[in-house]
Amino acid sequence: MNYITKTDYKTALTCTKKLWLNKNKDTKKTEITADQQMRIDEGYYFEKLVRTHKSFKGGVEANEFKKEDALKETINLLNTNNEIFYELSFAYKIKDITAFVRCDIIKKNKDGSLSLFEIKSSNKIKPEHKQDLAYQKWVVEKAGYTVKEASFITLNKEYIRTSKIVVSKLIKVTPANELIEQDKAEVYKNLNGIISKLMKQKTQPKVQFSVSKCGTCPFKNFCHKNINKDSIEKLSRISKGKRAELLSNKVKYIKDIPADFKLTDKQTIQRETAISNKPHI
Q1: What is the pLDDT of residues 19-43, one digit of tens each?
Q2: pTM
Q3: Which whole-number Å values give the CA distances from 244 to 171, 209, 232, 235, in the listed order?
Q4: Which helix (H) or strand (E) holds 139?
Q5: How far apart are CA 105 and CA 100, in angstroms?
Q6: Bridge partner residues of 119 (DSSP)
Q7: Contact 99/92 with Cβ under 8 angstroms?
Q8: CB 37 within 8 A of CB 218
Q9: Pairing state of beta strands 147-155 and 171-175?
């Protein structure tokens, strides 16, 4: 079964090639860096802290790893008298793909509705966070449940630690039904369109971004292994617009960028270095 997790969904909206490579597993990823692992660990630590808050403590955690088993476990747990749950799973099938989510925290309300809480170890809500929560709310509702509220739990940037961490002051809960409404309205279109077609595609999609835009993607080296070191693809933080304009003018290399073409300071240094073939000091 072609499951599309919330991570898959966000990936497809950013780079379809990355999702295709993830699903087809035909190439090796690079190992995650120590810095990336540290951020992952920080996220887990923050999640554990959130679970100690009086509003979320004492919950029952779903433990099944396999998706089919996890879905059955969720149904069973929601039929108990417990109110707080961690890592419950929900799914909804659309043609040949199945949208699947695991929710950080679920609260079962007295009227039988559910409240979703998405934990982010960030002090602000980013666009990709909204896509994440919108996808969860859409899937849970399609699975047959009423979602009363979907909220973010983030770091409170106003909090200053003096000694022991005070979780009630450390976290900030932001109701987000209205905030994610537009993203939620686009979920079906994205699943039924871009993602559904991608799952049937036999060949790799083209690279969507320049080297500098691919950041810490585990497939970065694979996708860009044949790109010339002087290519405009290596121009720092090149925008889609600039990239398209340069290519339309048949400019493929940094050294060939016209002097009157608008560049950032860093991009200008790259151009000058490419022309002089000397390191910038």
Answers
A1: 888 887 666 677 777 888 888 889 9
A2: 0.81
A3: 42, 11, 11, 13
A4: helix 127-142
A5: 16
A6: 153
A7: yes
A8: no
A9: antiparallel
